[in-house]
Queue: 3 jobs
Job 1
Amino acid sequence: MTTRVVVLGAGYAGAGAVSKLEAELGPDAELVWVSETDYHLVLHEAHRVIRDPGVRDKITIPVDDIKSRSTEFVHDSVEDIDTDDRVVELADGEDVDYDYLVVGIGSETATYGIDGMAEHPLTLKSLDDALEIHEQVKEAARDATREDPAQVVVGGAGLSGIQSAGEIAEFRDRHNAPIDVTLVEALPEIFPPGDSEIQGALRHRLEDADVNILTDDPITAATEDSLEFDERDSIDYDVFLWTGGVTGPSELAEVDIDAEHNRLQAESTLQTNDERVFAVGDCSMISQGTDEAAPPTAQAAWQAADVAAENVKRAMDGRPLETWTYDDQGTLVSVGETAIAHDVEMSGVSAPVRTFNSLPAKVLKKGAAARWIAKLTSWQRAMQAWDAL
């Protein structure tokens, strides 16, 4: 009897799991891949599209260039998962039955209950989002003057917020556009996960790029054209991009699996409390020990996807499951055409290299994205995308 394995999502988790499962599953298994997009987006490079939409083809990979012919692809959105009947309910097409399920459908941007935050800002979770940000920034600049520049505000100074602010500043400089760029962070310092060394390096690069930085004061409300704060005066904006954290996708809200904020809870084996369902990527909370979970990052999704796929095959065979421990291989952040590398593991070096920038950091950041593209397709394709990374 054929066993059907279904993978949901074409992000890092989903695409990575499909690639690995194709290598693991034998002829007695059927693999079905479901995604609302028919391409994989190299999401941690999506901010490049804000500056130049022309790079879109280099950071998107059609699913047909990733999967084998034997893998069935279903282009549809997930509505719900019925774990009792083992059925994935789809928005438009017929429901999909499964024997084993890998859930990797990403996340939504968290609003933290801030008034107006769900209605007014732009977000950066897809290619369409990046294209919309580009268009709104371009339109705002077209309507502005040197005496009355366009006000573009980025809320949230994590990885996505910092890189987006850098790209908007790069767009401004390349087009000599009348734009003021402001980066807002509720906590006392930008890049809250980092230590003071990388925070200082990133602040220096952002200030060099003429990005205004406002920290240590949370946004309390967003209107159609202004932001209110806990302490400082409100500020007006023409374009507002919100990048403040992640929450699980609404599609998982009613699924009968243990979850926190719609993120499925999984053991270090990537298995949920339903032994037929594995969760990976931003839609999951993967246990890493007492009160710890793996971070919702591309790097974590890349690593975990392989283990999830391996463990599906092990579960099918009745073998013990592997455990996964997140291996932090360092931080790579771009600010326009510059980049910062921090605690990066390098071949031939016994300890991670601390903070550095300039060309070596830029090459490392490009190399990380290129390795991922090569893993899914080929090094030839990765090198063709190099200038866009």
Job 2
Amino acid sequence: MKYVWRALLLLVPVLIVLGFVFRQQTQPVIEALAGGGACFFHTMTGLYCPGCGSTRATLALLHGRFLLSFHENPMILTCAVLAVLGYIELWSISFGRKLTLLPEKWQFWAVLVGLQLAWSVVRNFIPALMPLT
């Protein structure tokens, strides 16, 4: 019986996300966010920061356009995949089993951060990698 309550508690975030994605009234909000403000770093330097394109990437991800989301900012799609894997791990722990899907070694996370930072620098010099505006 204790596992049922844990499972129900773990379903709450999923239901919240599904409710947000499938609501018809979110379209005006999404259109308003797509216009968004300008990035302060980009305005001051003319370069793209590691977070540039995150809003558009999140909106593309919510609309199921995974390649566009990855093009705008791969960090968003990567974080979404890692969050789903972490959620599956949490779900398995709630049923008394330990399922390891995320690497526990710090080297994996260091390489992931290093790739993000390298991509953030390279995208400023290759026009095909720049976010769509």
Job 3
Amino acid sequence: MTGVEATEQSVHAGARRGGVRALWAGNPGAVVQRGLIAARSSSWAVVLSGFFEPVFYLASMGIGLGSLIGDVQTSSGVEVSYAAFIAPALLAVSAMNGAIYDSTWNVFFKLNYGKLYEGMLATSLGPLDVALGEILYALLRGLAYATGFMIIMQALGLNLAPTAILALPAVMLIAFGFASLGMAVTSYMKTFQQMDCINFVLLPMFLFSATFYPITVYPEWVQQIVMALPLWHGVELVRGLTTGILSADMLWHVLYYVVMIAIGLVFTTKRLRALFLD
């Protein structure tokens, strides 16, 4: 090795350790592309199950139970049919499920068993490329689930206002938030038993985030807990858009997810760098 080559290699190694390129190479698309190629051989039964779960809830509770309940009052005081009340909540849940599946279990396998991130970070990719690429791939699944569910809502007449079209970018924001935070949490998991904690958190959040009934049925102190949960903010945001009941409070829901995304990206990037580069 010549002196020039040795110097160049030393500079490159230094950049990987402490420079900007140690974090970001500007190519998260390579990670997304790899995920899409790998998805060709995945079990589509597992993929589709995440889409049909909220559809079954809508059919059994929105249509079946809704015929017994009648109209329900939203948090804005407007009465809508029970099906139109829970459908936007299930739309938010659909985006969450799609994003969480890819950013937790898939990431856990790649991190601890497939050793894929070690190979990725041995290239020019930085931890932010890997984190953002995996999150964007999870976002695609969340968007696919939400788009399919949105079509079903439109066919059933459950989109009550033209602003319902804005629910799609809203669910992308929701999926982005859950994917970024989900990957951050998963990067600290070491065993499958620890991964069960994710379902332990998601299930009560799904049931109690004003998904099936108004938040006002809870005592005041329980309402405060529910309003601190990310899914509640997503439910309220999407429900406002699909029913056409808009308010300034929706900006707070958006801000909640922006902060959630930022926290997830920062922690995931730091964790991947600590695991494979430091």
